[in-house]
Design a protein that fits this description.
Elements: E1 5-6, E2 9-10, H1 15-18, H2 32-46, E3 52-53, H3 65-74, E4 76-79, H4 85-101, E5 127-130, H5 142-145, E6 164-169, H6 176-182, H7 185-195, E7 200-209, E8 217-220, E9 239-244, E10 254-256, H8 268-275, E11 284-285, E12 293-297, E13 302-304, E14 313-321, H9 323-326, E15 330-331, E16 339-340, H10 343-349, H11 351-363, H12 386-391
Parallel strand pairs: 3-4
Antiparallel strand pairs: 1-2, 4-12, 5-6, 6-7, 7-14, 8-13, 9-12, 9-14, 10-11, 10-13, 15-16
């Protein structure tokens, strides 16, 4: 069968492309027919939401009203065609390198070649593993207990390894392609339009949903600090961008319950019990081509099923907050140690925005770089050079989780 190319990226990329384990593909067993029907119905609903298209702004820098309305209504939006072939090729090369350098197991210090593994000598958490096709967090107290219902776990093939890499955290320190993406002027323009000119970072990771092996992520809402705040609104806990290297669909992608970001803190366990399974009836998959970037409210109910497809999903995930949502807050315990997010903390963590803008300007010289307002007049302090490459180490210890 010929390979299908969409905007310059190979949609048929599989485990071999990324140097991952190749195993026989299994399915959902006794509930496979239900899953197939659920995916098809969800995809049909997703494509009727009217929440996808290119990044567009008004003349005064606001999001185009059609985008703002759809994002506010659904809690997510798919920006199409954001990344071109050259940038996707850069990202793919870096992701292959990152995976090649990962430790061989959760307690290993070396990679498959016997070299010091990715993150060796760092204090922060860098590589997270999952047992194939499992849900490690559902029904546990992990991450403030925000994953209250355990997902269905298909039986892994006999050939499956004991552990597979699923998340690489603090990705900007390990991949210049990830750093350059972080400085994308269109995406930073969206962040400014939604969160104000003094927006702040949140957290950055690379998700790898390995084909036939990737675990599920139980339904959850990301935020935990502001649910009872008197000024809570649909954007209080920020958002995540999710840039897709190979694209994603109902089998390997994220699912979202449209409109749930407006519902406050939801009893997700009760929803699943009412549904009789983890197949929430109103949820839809986030369907993307290579180079698309989804934006998802951290307050939306979202999750993903075990990847029983032959296709990997590689998502470069990075989020932003309103400054007023994080300034003066003491929080953490999920992405970063519990900390007080004061002016000095936020300023130190925000250095990566300036470094990313400069790094991108050196690779994509024809672009007009984004102007991050807190750095105006101080751009010379944020040059991406050898000193910055040293200073960025362990930057994710100062993630801003709320």
């Amino acid at each position: 069968m010929p390979q299908t190319l969409i905007r310059g990226c190979d949609m048929s990329a599989g485990a071999a492309t990324l140097g991952l384990a190749e195993v026989p593909i299994v399915n959902y067993g006794d509930v496979e027919d239900e899953m197939v029907a659920y995916r098809a119905a969800g995809t049909e609903r997703a494509m009727q939401l009217g929440n996808r298209g290119p990044i567009r702004f008004t003349d005064d820098g606001n999001l185009h009203p059609e985008i703002a309305e759809a994002y506010s209504r659904c809690g997510f939006y798919v920006f199409t065609g954001v990344l071109g072939p050259d940038e996707l090729a850069d990202i793919e090369a870096d992701v292959i390198d990152l995976l090649d350098r990962c430790p061989t197991a959760p307690d290993a210090d070396t990679d498959r070649h016997g070299r010091p593994a990715l993150g060796a000598g760092h204090q922060g958490r860098n590589v997270s593993f999952v047992r194939p096709l499992t849900d490690p967090y559902g029904g546990t107290d992990v991450a403030h207990g925000r994953h209250p219902f355990k997902m269905f776990e298909p039986s892994a093939p006999d050939e499956a390894p004991e552990w597979v890499v699923q998340v690489i955290s603090g990705s900007l320190q390990f991949s210049e392609a990830c750093l350059r993406l972080y400085g994308h002027p269109g995406l930073l323009g969206v962040a400014q339009a939604l969160n104000g000119p003094d927006f702040t970072p949140f957290n950055e990771v690379v998700w790898i949903k390995q084909p036939g092996l990737g675990g599920s992520v139980a339904w959850h809402q990301d935020g935990w600090t502001h649910w009872d705040h008197p000024e809570l609104d649909e954007g209080t806990h920020g958002f995540n961008f999710m840039a897709q290297l190979y694209g994603c669909d109902a089998t390997n992608g994220l699912w979202v319950v449209p409109g749930s970001h407006r519902m406050g803190k939801v009893d997700i366990k009760a929803m699943c019990l009412a549904a009789g399974s983890d197949r929430l009836p109103d949820a839809v998959p986030v369907v993307c081509d290579p180079g698309d970037v989804a934006i998802t409210s951290r307050q939306a109910i979202h999750g993903s099923f075990a990847n029983t497809s032959e296709r990997p999903r590689v998502t470069l995930n990075f989020g932003f907050h309103r400054r007023r949502s994080v300034f003066g807050v003491r929080s953490g315990g999920v992405h970063n140690p519990i900390s007080l997010y004061d002016e000095a903390y936020i300023a130190e963590r925000s250095r990566v925005i300036g470094w990313a803008i400069d790094a991108r300007s050196k690779r994509f010289e024809a672009e007009s770089p984004f102007v991050y307002q807190p750095n105006v007049g101080r751009e010379h302090e944020f040059v991406w050079d050898d000193a910055a490459r040293e200073a960025i180490a362990d930057y994710n210890l100062k993630d801003i989780g709320i």
